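1st attempt posting a full record on here, be nice pls
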Amino acid sequence: MEKENKLAVMPVGKLLFSLAVPAIAAQIVNLLYNMIDRIYIGHIKDVGTTALTGVGVTLPVLMLVAAFAALVGFGGAPRAAIAMGKGNNEDAEKILGNCVGMIVLISIILTVVFSLFSTEILYAFGASDDTIVYARQYMKIYVLGTIFVQITTGLNAFITSQGFASVGMKTVMIGAGLNIVLDPLFIFGFHMGVQGAALATVLSQAVSAVWVLCFLCGKKTILHVRWQNLKISPAVIGPVLALGVSPFIMQATESLLSICFNTSLGKYGGDIAVGSMTILASVMQTAMMPIQGLAQGMQPIVSFNYGAKQFHRVKKAFLLTLRSCLIYTFAMWLVAMLFPNVLASIFTTDTELIAYTSWALRIYMAACCIFGAQIACQQTFVALGKAVHSLFLAVLRKIILLIPMIYILPRFFEDKVFAVFLAEPVSDTLAVITTVTLFFATAWKMIKNGEKESQEREMANV
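the predicted structure (as tokens):
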């Protein structure tokens, strides 16, 4: 109960800080899983640029694996937190158990599909005859660790949603730290190249997965994984998947976007444009991960207190998160506009690719300064259990706006590659305007009304 009470009584600013700092650290460290791979691969002698482009083609696969973890974990954790806020830990444990069973089932299906059709999938995702060999080498090993990625990402959300943010941070840090050590050993020490990078990632995720399971089966957790709850029940898993559809689409459409960008850029700009996109995606991930961590820190506060009808705490948590997100994204925008060549040189020593990426980065991240509002509002919808609203916003930005823009804008510009990169800031601007408008017209009004009713009840009791 001590951990539960913290979500209910600790000052919101202090509580958000205590939950967000480990979550942000975990998100930053989590970047290292993919970032370290790409940095080392980009510096492999003679073949680094081609190998980096090949691994970039596998990004849609990695994103799809993460998307299914989000479907279950980010749909289940808020539901469990809301149940905890109502004092119903038994239902919360049923949600956790069902999510474990669903993760195992999904992992088996994904591993079989990606293993059997790797070549066909990679060509569809934008691989060329020059890059397919590296893409295939990386993917065939990575997909064997799908179960570990699913457990680590999906179930770690249940750890942080209980208020154990520092434990959630350790989950990521253990795996990422091991990955940092194993990457150069396998890539350069054992001369395994791209395959070594994939193997290092799989082994690191396996260790993180064991850590997560040991904690959720141990004595310190509030919610426990119990055998009787592992059997999937439609009544339990249905609402979880309904809420998880939004973060799933956010992740899965990243995969679809990567395919659209890679195929369009390959058509108009060739392999160097695709290689540049690999770096742009990495930089954007770096920029957005910390505020996603902040939103994860906010989620258990909002979910728990919404379930407990403490609407004034919900409001405080949202406003503090919104301000923090906007300040951060503006700072990241400044860095991208002023020092794009520095960011590009982290991933490659190829001067031509650095120059190309520096030009593209200023276009691609032109509107990221306002994107903090998108993250804060959309994740609050998820934390409140508003599945329909969060689903609409997830579909809006990427499927309704960005993907069509990738193909429409080149029709109006002579520089086709410029037009493809321009699709990102145009879509981001329209999405932010829509999201903020919808949030304050619905969720914010609901929070304010709930707060007013609570105050009236308190006055009546007095």
